[in-house]
Amino acid sequence: MIGVSKAFGGVHALRDVDFDLRRGEIHGLVGENGAGKSTMMKIIAGVYHGFEGEMRVNGERVEFRSPRDALAAGIGMVHQELSIVPDLTVAENVFLGVQPTAAGVVNWARMKREARKQLSTLGLEVDPAARMGSLPVGLQQLVELSRVLFSGARIIILDEPTSALSPPEVQRLFQALRRLREQGRTIVFISHFLDDVLEISDRITVFRNGHKVITDDTANFTKDSVISHMIGRGSAEMHMGESAELVGDDSKPVVLEARALDDGLMVKDVSLKLRAGEITGVYGFMGCGQVELSRLLFGKGALRRGQLLLNGKPVRLRSTAAARKAGIAYVPENRGMMLFRTEQVFKNISIAILDKINRLFLKPRREREIAEIHIKDLQIRPPRTDIALGNLSGGNQQKVALAKWLTHLPKVLILSEPTRGMDVGAKEDVIRIVKSLRDRGVAVLVLSTEPETILTLADRVTVLRRGVVAKEFTSGRLEKADLLDAA
Ligand SMILES: Nc1ncnc2c1ncn2[C@@H]1O[C@H](COP(=O)(O)OP(=O)(O)O)[C@@H](O)[C@H]1O
Ligand SMILES: [Mg+2]
Q1: pLDDT value at 268 more than 60
Q2: Cα torsion 86, 89, 90, 92: sign
Q3: Helix pair angle (424-439, 394-407), 10° resolution
Q4: pLDDT for the residue 237
Q5: Which pLDDT does position 362 carry in this prediction?
Q6: Which of 1, 8, 14, 157 to mutate to test the pocket of ligand 1 (most atoms within 8 A of CB)?
Q7: Residue 380 in contact with residue 399, Cβ under 8 Å?
Q8: Which CATH number fits the domain 243-486, given the four candidates 3.40.50.720, 3.40.50.300, 3.30.70.2190, 3.40.50.2000?
Q9: Ligand 1 atom 16: the closest Cα is on which residue?
């Protein structure tokens, strides 16, 4: 890849990046969220074709117009997002698009036999006739991996393939990758798990903010040096959210306590104490189980083991309604779920007080007046209560989602990715709102995959890693590098 640039609208995902792969190497590619890793790989795999720069395979200039073209040139990719078909069988998923046929008829017996053989080389004892959707996510991910690993591709790109895998599964995958390397195949391994990258790769490339920072032999890196290349520490780019002064106070009353929560899948033995007047941050990479954890705390997931205590008393949250009734508010990562996009802004704000004040007795004019106070307070733009919520930008919708809870203080407020995808101004507003809720005594939980968000908001931090509490930071200085390291 020579001088590759790619922009989406105004966003420069890649700027003048050179990148090369050698025959028979495992190449680790790392960088923070949004660094441009997936974009570069999608260009190589023929997903994106409009880009600046040049691509050569074995010295020959190539132009792919589709993933099919890339596949024909021997390049296969496992995408970050699972692309399995849940309603098909495991065997059909393994052979998606390339089913073995005889005289135009799919040879089911052969397909099952070969699928079983392939899967067993990854150490998987899965029934090829099982419905894909019935498998746990980790297994689905391995089945998808096996599809590309055994497709015969000479260049195999794995974009964050281990996020849902357990350590033994990762080791089995690594064995398979090493065998492929011996056959002269080339593998790109993208991962946030730096220990994994350092273990499996021959060379490592670091991307930051659309640029390539460095490519070198793995032997020349340490975990610390990889992290500092990733975050640009030491350069002039120090900015907000690089570190935080934690002020966790164990004397504050515990409002919600999670004891050894376990959903049998993504959340393993997680304990957590949320205190009044404190913001607890939960940090971890994508797929670390934080989404599932937040749902357990809000009565949305099935709890296999463990216990929740509210003000010291055991509670069972059988539904989100039960959680809300107990005083637990939840603003999910997909905030559209909790809002009524076609309803006017003022209705979205007053909805939180519907339980308390019968809407019939609340005059529309009064309802609007309340909303207008908040809109001014929160600097919601445009400052109008009468337009449909769906017409506001994401950041402003998030403010409306939070505004509801200003009207009616919850005991516990759970926020998943509260500032994701927002511009700086909206981010600052949201940060201000969340802190003011904390200062009014709410026990706040912020779950995020963005270190800046955690460092800006949290009074104390719990780091999750593959569903397990990896580390807790309570007080003192916390650097971004410590967070990444723990995760
Ligand atoms: N399809 C897209 N449309 C608009 N912006 C995109 C798209 N894909 C990626 N981006 C943006 O490009 C940048 C790089 O993204 P990506 O390549 O996915 O990073 P990484 O894989 O390193 O996390 C980010 O700012 C992201 O928001
Ligand atoms: Mg990516």
Answers
A1: yes
A2: negative
A3: 10
A4: 40
A5: 58
A6: 8
A7: yes
A8: 3.40.50.300
A9: 36
The confidence score (pLDDT) of residue 276 equals 97
Domain regions of the chain by residue span: 2-231, 243-486
Comparing 45-49, 67-71, 107-111, the range with the smallest average pLDDT is: 107-111
- Residues facing 461 on adjacent strands: 281, 473
CA 41 to ligand 1: nearest atom = 17
The residue ranking higher by pLDDT, 109 or 207, is: 207
Instruction: Report, as an integer, the average pLDDT of 136-152.
Output: 81
Compute the mean pLDDT over every residue in the chain, rounded to the nearest whole number. 85
With residues binned 3-state (H G I as helix, E B as strand, rest as coil), the percentages for the chain, rounded to 5, are 35, 25, 40
Distance of CA 477 to the CA centre of its chain: 25
Name the CATH superfamily housing domain 2-231: P-loop containing nucleotide triphosphate hydrolases (3.40.50.300)
Give 235's pLDDT tier (boundaries 50, 70, 90). Answer: very low
User: Is residue 363 very low, low, confident or very high in pLDDT (cuts 50, 70, 90)?
Assistant: low
Identify which ligand lies nearest to the alpha carbon of 81. Answer: 2
Give the integer Cα–Cα distance in Å for 437 and 457: 12
Contact between 282 and 267 under an 8 Å Cβ cutoff? The reply is no
Q: What radius of gyration do the chain's Cα atoms show? A: 25
Question: For 332-346, what is the mean pLDDT?
Answer: 62
Q: State how beta strands 186-190 and 155-159 pair.
A: parallel
Cα 180 to ligand 2 centre (Å)? 23
Domains 2-231 and 243-486 share a fold: yes
Q: CB of 308 within 8 A of CB of 483?
A: no
Measuring from atom 18 of ligand 1, which residue has the nearest CA? 38
Q: What is the pTM of this model?
A: 0.65
pLDDT above 60 (res 352): no
Taking CA atoms only, the protein residue closest to ligand 1 atom 26 is 34
Confidence of residue 238 (pLDDT cuts 50, 70, 90): very low
Nearest-atom number in ligand 1 for the CA of 31 is 22
| Predicted confidence (pLDDT) per residue in 6-26, tens digit | 998 778 899 999 999 999 999
Distance from Cα 41 to the centre of ligand 2, integer Å: 9
The atom of ligand 1 lying closest to the CA of 33 is: 23
Q: 88: CA distance to ligand 2 center in Å?
A: 27
Pocket test for ligand 1, best of 4, 11, 81 (most atoms within 8 A of CB): 11
Q: How far apart are the C-alpha atoms of 117 and 113, rounded to whole Å?
A: 6
Residue nearest to atom 6 of ligand 1 (CA): 8
